[in-house]
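Reading is simple: each integer encodes one residue's backbone shape. The lines below illustrate:
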Amino acid sequence: IFDIPEAILPEIRSSSEIYGEAEGSFSGLSIAGILGDQHAALFGQTCFDPGQAKNTYGTGCFLLLNSGEEPTLSEHGLLTTLGYKIGDAKPVYALEGSVAITGALVQWLRDNLEMIQESAEVEELANQVEDNGGIYFVPAFSGLYAPYWQSNARGVIAGLTRFITKAHIARAVLEATAFQTKEVLEAMEKDTGIKLASLKVDGGMVNNELLMQFQSDMLNVPVIRPTITETTALGAAYAAGLAVGVWKDQEDLRDYWQEDRVWTPAMEETERDRQYKGWKKAVKRSFDWVD
């Protein structure tokens, strides 16, 4: 696109290698692990096989799926990225999809609407009702990211009736995160042809059990939370530890990684399809709002 000569682009180097030593207060410590933020989380979740995926739930959601040793160019609104490279092994590539507003929507509920005092209270409020009452909250506050890339979309609460309470709104807020995650993972499956077997999760929102169960229901696969949910830091530690001999190889890392809890699907297919159809309808209502 930009006519940049390939010869001037940086070469791919190992994510796990001793590149030097620190000076000053940390003198003697090896500089041995180099990974980007979400790439470190992918590595920290030990997503070492093609088709394995992780989702980091923060103010937004950031999904990466291991696509193997050859880059997959997305035709469904995702980014192709370099996942990691360990030693002399071939680089591992990934597909990446970002969702702009997830945990930030809970903050908005807390700070702007003042429905809750603390973010964690959203789960208790949402649990006061059995379902969303037929409403869907599309948090396109500044447009929609993957897989739509609709900068002119804006936020929508669709399906409101006089029956709706703040508990229904709280539930719709949480469900929006799960619906958006499902859309990105569907795009990943279309691009790779690999059906997701499970999803590893991390980040602040994974302590919300209502959300995690609904996520499993929507994806129809197990959702797995590790004992260490700060997997970005863990992935960086894994890469550095491999370089200096704390761990022997990636199989050692698999053994070290431990799951804390697994949520399994408990929703009927017809109900899952009905709710997802409603979400898709609401998303379309958010399009073309800004001229």
